[in-house]
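2024-03-11 09:14:02 DEBUG pipeline.ingest accepted 1 chain
2024-03-11 09:14:02 DEBUG pipeline.ingest length=208
2024-03-11 09:14:03 DEBUG pipeline.predict start
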Amino acid sequence: MKKYLDFLIKGFYAGILISIGGIAYLSIENKIVGSFIFSLGLLTICIYSFNLYTGKVGYILVNKINYVIELIISLLGNLLGTFTIGTLMRLTRFKNYIDTATNIVNVKLNDNILSIFILSMMCGMIMYIAVNNYKKESDIIGKYITIFMGVMAFILCGFEHCVANMFYFSIAGVFSLKVIGYLLVMILGNSVGSILIALPYNRYSEKK
């Protein structure tokens, strides 16, 4: 039971850190600078070994079946962390954050399911590359550059990150069956993208 609680707690803190990155992004008009600062969230998650679903799902290929339980609990923790920070931010004086997040959310909810899935899949690929390079790269500068470039790439390209979107939906205060459906598609897309890019890595890279 303790290990499951650890998964939840590590997922919760990962959700908080992604939310902090999201707040930074909402507060900065320049998207390039905003995406750069957002990267601090993923970097800290990797350094502290917190459980971010999109950073872990690609490793389902090299783990036992009970790893699925860790993924689900971590995702629940991510949801709780983003919901907590998003809800708390709605109680602050930064009302402009809510307006900006609402605009972002509306763009997503007005998109079609196939588009959301494809954009989520692309984000999943980038997230696996960023996190896996951080894990495997021995050069400290290379580890950090990978994280920053990966996060900036998915944000500037407009790809869909399910946990970041949990935060945007929370701070915008937008909750509905449609939101749940779109989040499930994003989770699926992130998962498929991450697993697809992990396949050739596990097949070829590990054999060198």
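2024-03-11 09:14:41 DEBUG pipeline.report The chain has a mean pLDDT of 95.
2024-03-11 09:14:41 DEBUG pipeline.predict end
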